[in-house]
Model the fold of this input.
Amino acid sequence: MDLGTGIFLSTLVISVVVMYGITKDRWNWRRLVKRTTVFCLGLILLGAAIGGGIYLYNQIPPPSPD
Done:
């Protein structure tokens, strides 16, 4: 990891912690985390299904011409 990447990621984490501290009484953080998790898992499952479909499609032998 480069120094710039480390600075960026640490700034990102600090900003999320500060935002949580400011908005913890106004936002429903539990629901936000649940929805984000479900969305990310859905994207992963969709990607796996598409990748598996492409892999299986490539494994099918082409038909022989008659």
About this structure: Residues 48 and 64 are 30 Å apart (CA to CA). The first helix runs from residue 3 to 23. The radius of gyration is 22 Å.
